[in-house]
Amino acid sequence: MTFLYAARGTFDKNYGEESREKYIEWSKLKHLTELVSLDGMLNENLVEPDYHNADDWNFIYSTDQHQTDFFTTQANILFWKQLQISLNRIYI
Description:
It is built from 2 helices and 4 strands. It has helices spanning 17-27, 74-91; strands spanning 11-12, 34-35, 60-63, 66-71. The longest helix is centred in the C-terminal third of the chain and has 18 residues, at 74-91.
């Protein structure tokens, strides 16, 4: 069995009230306040590896030459996220 990892944002009122309300109406999930799923259309990917770094490709899960938003280790997700937070602090 292969375990895969992802870091996703939440689909809630901060995402966009109009799109959220359309989704709730379509899904009939009236009780929904936030949604965390693997659906890349609803939940943004919170990490982005360095695609120019050959070593990063060792941790990106791909199938039949198609890249997914899944990764093979949690450690790399946490590292990439921490790196992005650090870069955001530098560029703000």
